[in-house]
């Protein structure tokens, strides 16, 4: 699950936008710690995920507007240097707010069981649920990027940003 999310994000950012974002994993880590912290506050994992997603969208938007957007027309080395610096900053923020201990969120009650595969092996329901979520997410990403007007604009923007921003009648 984690590898799928990181890989799909990297594919979208580098494959479509052409941005080398070495800090992608650090953003993912910050979002995970944020969900852990929010789960302790609101008491519901799914609500914490929704809130954490919204907060990380704002953080990502601000970092893109305040830092990364200035590097679109520059050499990839500038992107590497900036995003490496973001790794260092985000890792230090994580240590300041949550320390260096390992934390986890309890598995929700409906997903805490397991399916017996053999007499000695069982597979957690939670992992099956996460696998299904990943497959749905992959299908949604495919449909949005390849079949919708939004996906068309995202793909066009990766080729010619100025043309996409020009006013026209639809």
| Beta-strand residue percentage | under 5%
Helix fraction by DSSP (H/I, runs of at least 4): over 70%
Secondary-structure element order, as H and E?
A: HHHHEEHHH
Helix- and strand-based class? mainly alpha
Label the overall shape. Answer: globular
Largest sheet geometry? 2 strands, antiparallel
The average pLDDT is 87
Q: Which strand order does the major sheet show?
A: 1-2
End-to-end Cα distance, whole Å, is 39 Å
Secondary structure tally, helices: 7
Q: Which stretches are low in confidence, meaning pLDDT under 50 for 5 or more residues running?
A: none
Radius of gyration: 19 Å
What is the β-strand count? 2
Short recap of the structure:
By secondary structure, this protein is mainly alpha-helical. The protein has helices at about 1-15, 25-40, 45-65, 75-100, 125-145, 150-160, 160-165; strands at about 115, 120-125. Helix 2 packs parallel to helix 4.
How would you sum up this structure, described in words?
With 170 residues, the protein is mainly α. The protein is 70% helix and 4% strand. The chain has seven helices and two strands. The protein has a two-stranded antiparallel sheet with strand order 1-2. Helix 2 packs parallel to helix 4 and helix 5 packs across helix 6. The radius of gyration is 19 Å and the shape is globular.
């Amino acid at each position: 699950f984690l590898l799928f999310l990181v890989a799909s994000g990297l594919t979208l950012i580098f494959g479509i936008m052409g941005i080398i974002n070495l800090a992608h994993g650090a953003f993912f880590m910050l979002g995970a710690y944020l969900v852990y912290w929010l789960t302790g506050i609101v008491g519901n994992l799914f609500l914490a995920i929704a809130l954490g997603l919204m907060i990380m969208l704002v953080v990502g938007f601000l970092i893109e507007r305040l830092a990364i957007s200035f590097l679109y027309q520059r050499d990839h080395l500038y992107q590497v240097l900036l995003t490496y610096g973001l790794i260092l900053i985000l890792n230090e923020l994580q240590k300041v707010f949550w320390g260096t201990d390992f934390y986890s969120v309890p598995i929700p009650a409906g997903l805490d069981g397991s399916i017996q595969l053999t007499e000695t092996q069982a597979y957690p329901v939670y992992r099956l649920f996460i696998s299904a979520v990943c497959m749905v997410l992959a299908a949604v990403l495919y449909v949005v990027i390849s079949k919708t007007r939004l996906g068309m604009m995202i793909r066009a923007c990766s080729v010619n940003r100025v043309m996409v921003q020009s006013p026209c009648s639809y």
